[in-house]
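Let us begin with a simple case.
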Amino acid sequence: MDILECIRTRRSIRTYTDRPISEETLRELIGLGVKAATGSNEQPWGFAVIQDKDEIQRLSEETKGWLLEHLADYPYLEQYREWLNKPSYSVFNHAGTLLLIYGDTASHWYAYDGSLCAANIMLAAHSMGIGTCWIGFGEHILDTPEFKRVHNVPESYRLVCPMTLGYSKASLPPSERKEPRIFSWRKA
């Protein structure tokens, strides 16, 4: 698949098969991720990979509990209350792989660089037939000092992107998007 087709057809995937992603494939995806543009060539990214379904499920339950406890602090999440109260709902989509991209806060560019890295991984994964989804709900639990200590993430690193990966159960049509808002276009 060429890059333009990859960009046009990539979707966030939330239902995965049980087929595992190999360590070799994940290392290749991370290697492609770090080919991203990086401010001042600081390359401030770091990664944690979780492929233990029990741990992913436990983290989902912990995340759901935390979010329900703090909905008043994040009114924009109120729309998800029903999901969060469902025992069958998995924050991490029952995925077999959770990839966490962190950025070293010593770099002013860490959030930008980590986001560009995530985009590379998402596109590369799509080109390999692997689905991905950025999981915004994961930002609170997966960036705590306790979690980072267990996963050897240095204190100076902040979570940029929690991403699920897996082989998709279904094929989805390309996303429809609004026309871009172009505020200015100057020509000589």
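The second case is a distinct protein. As before, the sequence precedes its structure tokens.
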Amino acid sequence: MSDICRVLLADDHVLVAEGIQKLLEPEFELVGIVADGRSLVAAAAKLQPDIAVVDISLPLLNGLDASQHVKKTNPNIKIIILTMHSEPNFVTQAFRVGVSGYVLKQSVGSELVQAIREVMKGRTFVSPMVTQSLVDQAVNPSGSGEANGFAQTLSSRQREVLQLVAEGKATKEIASILNVSIKTVEFHKTRIMKELRLRTAAELTKYAISAGLTSIH
């Protein structure tokens, strides 16, 4: 069995993915590149990489919810989040999901390879720009931190529906993607709007972007 670390990359920006590929290939085996969260879940199950490097703002299913799916079905796969988001709520949610590393994209050149090495040794890696206290807070939540980041007031299924609505998917298409009835999608949309006190699709989209559920600009 090869000692070379096998890495799966999930990022929907082609140039970013190509840059990361060049960065990793001298030392690691890149087994696949996927561009959305649902493909990540499928590829992780099929390819069984040692590590998945995952962007948060992935289409169809955001990186954190996708990572949670991966960890539930493939607990041995270690996950490193690679993102532009340095806000505490994203970091906290990521470690609650069970990731092993958190690297900021602006530091990718100097930190990603190091992060993979550390995580493969069973350690945690966090970009120095993200304070260690955030990880401590995530692992041992003792305070009454704000739960408004990353749409934490919504269930994972509600976040899935919200993201797909924000990405412009029609109700019928959302029902097909999630393998549920149109009635169920409508029910979730109504509950989401009531929960978030929003009235229009435009408001839902704006909220989804600010919560990091989609990278639409």
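Residues 143-148 have pLDDT under 50 and may be disordered. The longest strand covers residues 29-34.
Keep these points in mind for the review questions at the end of the chapter.
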